[in-house]
């Protein structure tokens, strides 16, 4: 069930449906409730006063899932670990691009991922994952969750349906499959997972074991402008808000969104574990959402030009850019169906000569910034094998196609000609 419509949650002007870009300026916020402020103030408070003791009791019943007849549909403001005006404005607006019923925000992307998985998987259960995933997610699923009795089984992101079915059979021998977790495109190799297959897989597993596992998709790499997983078979979409949505490399945050029924246990666990996001960061993210479409489209175009340059360079062996997928191939068809032809701005390329050559190139850069993370206004570049994915088993990295010379670049909104000039002089040192 979606949130009730209020005067500040209207999505249409008469018969005209308003676009997410327009709704980002006002949706979920009533200026009259904040002294007429055009922008939401920062509600830097830990707690909120109740009008009456009865009101406070009703709010806590609703928040705890114990609502009685006559209680409000939504809990009013009570304590900033549970809700806060800045948090609620941000969560309302995050639903718009993805078409979600409900959204929740967290203190980091990994806070979102861990809370979602632990809300739906318990001791004795199995997480069926695609691989590769972001290094932190691989470590969570393969090394940390087993300490709590949650096991895992995997399949390669580009695997055939027959290979995926083999992985399902192996997973079912371990226990109940509670969650299907995938990332598409993958970080950093830009492999593609077919979400229609994931949906069908979840339905088939549900019929076999009596419980349909939700399909959870990390959509950080293409973001809400490049892809909408919920429209293609996913049940829950998760994000590192640190990346494109925040987009300025000045905050840490995460989000999860989907149907209200699936988000309810996630909300309950977030309240219990305290993985919520603070009011100031919520305010910063609401600010960033106003320009996310402009920033991402500019970055996508800059990445296209940088990738085209690298593709023809004699010291670059391979460019793993989504725009270079072979026409007619399985990945090309799936990617275009799911993303509408958006190729993103983050991709990897392999420097000839291995890690030593890659390090020489990285150390020679003057404009591109040598740092982990992605999706900022500035262009960032790193060596995943020794940084973001260093904690992933070396044999697994080799299985996933990592090479010593592979570097990942996230193109920002600088002039692409300047980025190309910097790469040109740096590659001379490789």
TrEMBL record:
Could you tell me the superkingdom of the organism this chain comes from? Answer: Bacteria
A Gene Ontology annotation in the biological process aspect, one of them, is: transsulfuration
| GO cellular component terms listed in the entry, alphabetical order | cytoplasm
Matching Gene3D superfamilies: Aspartate Aminotransferase, domain 1, Type I PLP-dependent aspartate aminotransferase-like (Major domain)
PROSITE patterns linked to this entry = CYS_MET_METAB_PP
Names of the cofactor(s)? pyridoxal 5'-phosphate
GO molecular function per UniProt: carbon-sulfur lyase activity; pyridoxal phosphate binding
Positions bearing N6-(pyridoxal phosphate)lysine:
243
Keywords in alphabetical order, please.
Pyridoxal phosphate
Q: Which PANTHER family match?
A: METHIONINE GAMMA-LYASE (PTHR11808:SF86), TRANS-SULFURATION ENZYME FAMILY MEMBER (PTHR11808)
The similarity annotation says:
Belongs to the trans-sulfuration enzymes family.
Q: What is this protein called?
A: Cystathionine gamma-synthase family protein
Q: Give the organism the record lists.
A: Alkalicaulis satelles
Which lineage ranks, top first, belong to the organism behind this chain?
A: Bacteria, Pseudomonadati, Pseudomonadota, Alphaproteobacteria, Maricaulales
